[in-house]
Amino acid sequence: MLASETCRLRDSQANVKHDSIIDAVALITEAVRRVTGKTYYDVQLIAGWRLAQGRVAEIQTGEGKTLITAIPAFVFALAGRGVHVATTNDYLSRRDYETTRPAFRLLGLTIAHLDTGQEAGDKRIAYGCDITYGPGYEFGFDYLRDQIERRKGEAMRLGDRFVERIRGQHFQTTASVQRPCAFAIIDEADSVLIDEANTPLVLGGQDPGPQTDPALYRIADQFALSLSEGQDYRIQNGGIIELTESGRRLAGTAFENLPRKKMARSWTVLVHNALKARIGLKPDVDYVVQLGEVQIVDANTGRIHDERRWQGGLHQAVEVAAGLEPSIETLTQARITRQRYCQYYDKLSGLTGTAGENVSDFREFYGLDTDIIPTHRPSQRQIVPARYFANHADKMRFIVDDAMKRSRNGQPVLIGTRSIKESNAVASAFNRAVTLLNGVQDEIEADVVSRAGQAGAITIATNMAGRGTDIAVDGQAKAAGGLHVIATEHQDSPRVDRQLAGRAARQGDPGSVQFLACPQDTLIENHEPKLAATLAGIQLSTGITAAHLDSAIAGLQRDIDRKRFEMRRQMVARDAWLENIQNTLAKTG
């Protein structure tokens, strides 16, 4: 019955029209009710309606984003051109796929999940379905793979094509895995479309050219360790490392004494990479070592990405700094920024718990309007005034004391940290068992999250706790005040802070949140030394609350957001210029 209604809607529309959207929303809500027993709330229907119109919707934690996403996915699928539902990682995409699959099948739609490492034929089948779920980066990488295959076909010599023609053979390039980009629904849209907009998706292959001898990476690493900050190199704003006159002179002397070995890059580049690996990139902050490999940590989410690699020999320098053998350098075969890739879709929509701060970004760079969707129940979240400390040790003592006190009273506590290194340090400060969720245990995330809302639980997490995780609080915990979130430091963006705060008081539950700060926090140390000096003068070891310090933090975050907005604007202009040059060369060539 429902499947026949789907066919009727498909036959009645060439485009996604207003009346068709109304009928489609009614149909998907009935399918969800039949397979899950759940009925959509009015606010969920509003959110789904807005997304089906190609907009960004701010939807708070616990409001049912997975089922809300099913509404625009079904509406878009009626056009028969394929819908991509992109989440931040494989765990979330598979969870959402498994949740929605029964309803879509009841409606007569085909649905698939993209798995990393799938054969091209299997992926082609997945993309041929009405709706395809997967991690966002996998859609981008498949697009790049298709572009590489297309270029290979275009590069085939004219003579080869002529010979095939006279033999009666038809020249054909390898069939694309993806269909043309039609519809996409982006989960955590602010993270993907804004925070990671500048981060390119890079598809690499083994470089057939000359490779730098591994011994030279190790020599450069030892040379970098011998240099002194201030005398031989300086760290500029933005973390740029620059050799001084003394450093350049020492590098020149070292170059003259190098053994005669293959060098694919200049000695200067090897030295700068070694310095960056030793000083600019921190273990358990920017990367982790797992399974004998260097794996990059996403600064925005705290998640580990084994599919990413630093380019230009930097990855090999980090491997040596981590005590590993340098891997073979890869050649960049294709690359595209996430922003540029998402702009190829005919219709784009996105949902996130924090969109209000970036309305201008969504409109200027993607042409998307933003809607703030109200919660089903009024929020009971209590904001405890931020607390400021003179040093990291005082702040750490407060974290342990406050968390233990609340835990003894039966209140669950989530401690949000900026890095894996910090989460490990906080965990070691407790003399009792605590639970870690820091990207290293990504595969057991669901189990960790399910226990974080239990009475008296103490969970320590990196930013990943603020992305795609839903912490349900049990009855005893609610009676004790609900989940309390302790943010060990502010993030560069207030939006990321708000994302973590959104873990508390979900769906009308009680809950609270408090932010802490000290001079050693990354935000303050990197961007506002005057504020660091002010905090260092605090006399009370238990910290203080102060409205003027709250204002200083908020102002600092606004300044950083403005600068990054301008950087994104410049990147868009650069991408447009490069594309124009490429098109011109293609026409003249």
From TrEMBL:
Keywords: ATP-binding, Cell membrane, Cytoplasm, Membrane, Nucleotide-binding, Protein transport, Translocase, Translocation, Transport
InterPro entries: Helicase_ATP-bd, Helicase_C-like, P-loop_NTPase, SecA, SecA_DEAD, SecA_motor_DEAD, SecA_preprotein_X-link_dom, SecA_SF2_C
Keyword field contains Nucleotide-binding: yes
TM ranges: none
Superkingdom in the source lineage: Bacteria
Record-level GO cellular component terms: cell envelope Sec protein transport complex; cytosol; plasma membrane
Helicase C-terminal domain sequence ranges: 399-557
Domain SecA family profile: 1-547
Helicase ATP-binding domain location: 46-274
Keyword Transmembrane helix attributed: no
A single BP term in Gene Ontology: protein targeting
GO molecular function annotation: ATP binding
The protein's name: Preprotein translocase subunit SecA
Organism this protein belongs to: Rubripirellula amarantea
